[in-house]
Amino acid sequence: MFSRLFENVSRRALVLLGALLVGLFAAPLVASDYLLTVLILILYFAYIGQAWNIMMGFAGQLSLGHALYVGLGAYTAAALYVHFGIGPWIGLLVAVPIAGLAGAFIGYLAFRFKVGGVYFAILTIAVAEFARVGFDHLTWTKGSGGLFLPVAQYAQSDLWLLRGKPVMFYYILLVAVVLAFVFCRALLRSRIGYFWLAIREDEEAARSAGIDTFRYKMIAVVISSAMTSFAGVIYAFYYNNLFPEQVFHISRSIEIILGPIVGGVGTLFGPIIGAFLLTGMSESLIAALHALGIDIPGAKQVFYGFCLLLVIAALPDGIWPWLSRRIGLSEREK
């Protein structure tokens, strides 16, 4: 099965992909503590970007409230751990269905009553904001005071409880990105992937061809939301504190979508390239300003806006389609 997924991929593409994987797996051996934290952020946004890309890039449904699923995953697993001592991997079995049900609820409301385009995007924002206000007053998760996970010093990383050093989270996220990449490629090459692309390009034509657009859009929303909740669990146990204003805020949703947009919506490598460029360059900018003793409020947001405007003006399809043409990759390898 794995070989069939990459049967049409050229030797050059496989070599480049293999070199990238080797470099990423070896990175913690030479990276400083600060660089490792930046790489963790990059992988975090690369993974979420892949999950968001399923909904928007594959099925054409614009979500501007994906922080909702991050927050649901984070709060569910963290609350179960704090109140009942349930480990994050067991908590994940609860968090994923909850996020999937939230996605299904939004999708049903939108698609059942034919809410699409910008109105669907507004609906996702509204539900995320509703969750933010709700969790701000939910005493079981400590409300606006913040939910804090107990932290202890571990001589060795505890993978089962996700307690340990940053390098453990790095490799967890790296494996998650690789699996998400393979999973997304499998989806694109499947029947459902072709249905999604048909819906994205022309929903009315897809419906006329006999495609159950409601069903397949619902599948895209549920898969995307469920995948995103995993990143929320990792977020909670990596940072060990959760605040509704921080987790559910619309700015978090915007950060999620910028990587795929800059890298190339609808492509497999786009979210990864976008995460590396945006997160890597923005963190470098902040570090440089800090070293110079300069404090500019909102510098990162201004940098994001500049990058987005530059890409839209020069490369409207994103960086990866342009880059893939320069290195001689075919359409199937993007």
Tally of separate helices: 15
Largest sheet: 2 strands, antiparallel
Strand order within the widest beta sheet: 1-2
- Radius of gyration of CA atoms, rounded to a whole number: 20 Å
Beta-strand segment tally: 2
Work out the helicity level.
over 70%
Key words describing this protein structure:
334 residues; mainly alpha; two-stranded antiparallel ribbon; 15 helices; globular
Strand-helix topology:
Elements lengths: L1 H4 L5 H20 L2 H26 L8 H18 L3 H25 L5 H19 L10 E2 L17 H23 L2 H11 L1 H6 L4 H27 L1 E2 L1 H4 L2 H14 L6 H22 L7 H16 L4 H8 L8
Antiparallel strand pairs: 1-2
Summarize, please:
The protein is mainly alpha-helical and 334 residues long.
Description:
With 334 residues, the protein is mainly alpha-helical. It is globular and about 60 Å long. α3 packs across α12 and α8 (191-201) packs across α10 (213-239). A two-stranded antiparallel sheet has the order 1-2. It has helices at residues 2-5, 11-30, 33-58, 67-84, 88-112, 118-136, 166-188, 191-201, 203-208, 213-239, 244-247, 250-263, 270-291, 299-314, 319-326; strands spanning 147-148, 241-242. The protein has one domain (2-333).
